[in-house]
TrEMBL record:
Keyword Nucleotide-binding: yes
Amino-acid positions noted as binding ATP in the UniProt annotation, renumbered to this chain: K70
Protein name, UniProt field: Serine/threonine protein kinase
Top-rank lineage group of the source organism: Bacteria
Source organism: Sandaracinus amylolyticus
Positions of the UniProt region annotated as Disordered: 1-33
Keywords of the record: ATP-binding, Kinase, Nucleotide-binding, Serine/threonine-protein kinase, Transferase
Length: 329
């Protein structure tokens, strides 16, 4: 908490939970995870990279190549398996420098997904580490990360089938823990485990909303349908938190968090960080508008962020990931 009682971004999992925080938001119970196997298919398991509600991600190798292998937990339900299959289908179809690549996989009795290994922290981990030192990610680096993520989303939203029809992809879990950063300044969107697309809208049951409540759009919490604009909203929240070093929607209770999201009365980033330019305040306000029609497309958001950062940000991000930079709070 800061002096005014506002939770700091990344503190104690308050920004949506890290990969290691596997407790269910409602029950607080950690799901039963499988014991670490020696091998997954032809891949030798070296360790655990992270755990989530659906499964576990292992560090593994085949020959001299190291990869990340995502597996479902023991005896997954039908819903979890369908979401895993949707994730494999969509992420395999995407080819973009800002999306984690799928290298291999198996959707048989013991399904797994082999992903490129991104050797670097998540945005959540980086902001948490900076916050522990009394620092924040520099503004131009925040804009750069958000721009790269927006370009990844724009690519996913524009994906079409062989007949030229939109697949209507919605990631539905854009959050700081699902944006991975490298020491070379690359940004990678990952974890399509809650993805929805035109032919496979499996991931939700009537009356059930999946994802991290702080990044869910108001229309979802009102019981409405979501589309690509939901991802823009979530990325707007990520940018707000990255700029301010605070959590936009404190989760003292699920009811209070949902009410805060639906009301949509949020202070501008410059309230907490006066150096944030006016045009960035306005852009964030549009992205997190309670009216989906007021939000820009992911491609439009990427273009606006590119103009706002004026060519800066990548080198600043590199230094921050390497532990060599940060801005005073």
């Amino acid at each position: 908490m800061d002096s005014r009682g506002w939770p700091r971004f990344g503190a104690c999992g308050s920004a949506g939970g890290s990969a290691e925080d596997t407790r269910d938001e409602v029950s607080g119970v950690r799901p039963c995870m499988p014991r670490r196997p020696e091998r997954v298919g032809p891949y030798r398991v070296l360790g655990v990279l992270g755990e989530g509600g659906m499964g576990v991600v292992y560090l593994a190798e085949r020959g001299t190549t190291r990869v990340a292998v995502k597996c479902l937990r023991t005896a997954p339900g039908a819903g979890a398996r369908r979401r895993f299959e949707a994730e494999a289908f969509v992420q395999s179809a995407l080819s973009h420098p800002n999306v984690v690549r799928v290298l291999d996989g198996d959707t048989g009795p013991e399904p797994y997904l082999v992903l490129e290994l991104v050797e670097g922290p998540s945005l959540l981990a980086l902001c948490s580490a900076l916050g522990a030192r009394g620092l924040r990610l520099p503004i131009d680096a925040c804009l750069y990360v958000a721009e790269r993520a927006a370009r990844a989303l724009a690519h996913a939203h524009a994906l079409e089938d062989e007949h030229g029809r939109s697949l209507e992809i919605v990631h539905r879990d854009v959050s700081p823990s699902n944006l991975l950063l490298t020491r070379e300044g690359s940004v990678k969107l990952t974890d399509f485990g809650l993805v929805r697309h035109r032919d496979r809208d499996w991931a939700t049951t009537a009356g059930l909303a999946l994802g991290k409540i702080g990044y869910m759009p108001p229309e979802l919490l009102r019981g409405g349908e979501v589309d690509a604009r939901a991802d823009v909203y979530a990325l707007g929240v990520v940018l707000w938190e990255c700029l301010t070093g605070r959590v936009l929607v404190p989760r003292r209770s699920l009811f209070e968090a949902a009410e805060r999201v639906v009301q949509g009365q949020h202070p501008a980033p410059s309230t907490w960080r006066p150096r944030v330019p006016t045009e960035v305040d306005a852009l964030v306000a549009r992205a997190i508008s309670i009216d989906p029609d007021a939000r820009p497309s992911a491609a439009g958001l990427a273009s606006a962020l590119c103009l706002a950062r004026r060519g800066r940000g990548r080198r600043t991000l590199e230094r921050a990931v390497r532990g060599e930079g940060g801005a005073a709070c």
